[in-house]
Amino acid sequence: MNLSELRPGMEEIELCVKLISLETPREIETYTGLKHTIVEGKVTDGTETLDFTVWNEAIEKLEGIEPGNNLELLNAFITSYKGELAVNIGRESEIIKQ
Fold it and tell me: Over the stretch 19-55, which tens digit does the pLDDT of each residue have?
């Protein structure tokens, strides 16, 4: 599936992407008051460039991964925040460096 075909609410998505950027972990608080640690970045597949968010304990799956790497993302989910789509990696997701 291409990034350009993604829509908010999609789950269990498998994607092959290139990691463009990756920021340092930071803590956020949701509108419900829950606190989370996230790492944000950008990914592309040549059709589209989207935000990329890795949540909480899934951050450890980024070990050894850096911008420029080609990745296979398994069981990712798609969200939209302020009209911007994001590819999300949670506890059930996998990141495989190609």
Answer: 999 999 999 998 899 999 999 999 999 999 999 999 9
Domains of the chain by residue range: 3-97
The topology (CATH level 3) of 3-97 is OB fold (Dihydrolipoamide Acetyltransferase, E2P) (2.40.50)
* Terminal-residue alpha carbon distance, the chain: 17
Count the neighbouring beta carbons within 10 Å of the beta carbon of residue 80. Answer: 13
Q: What is the DSSP string of the chain?
A: --GGG--TT--SEEEEEEEEEE---EEEE-TTS-EEEEEEEEEE-SS-EEEEEEEGGGGGGGTT--TT-EEEEEEEEEEEETTEEEEEE-TT-EEEE-
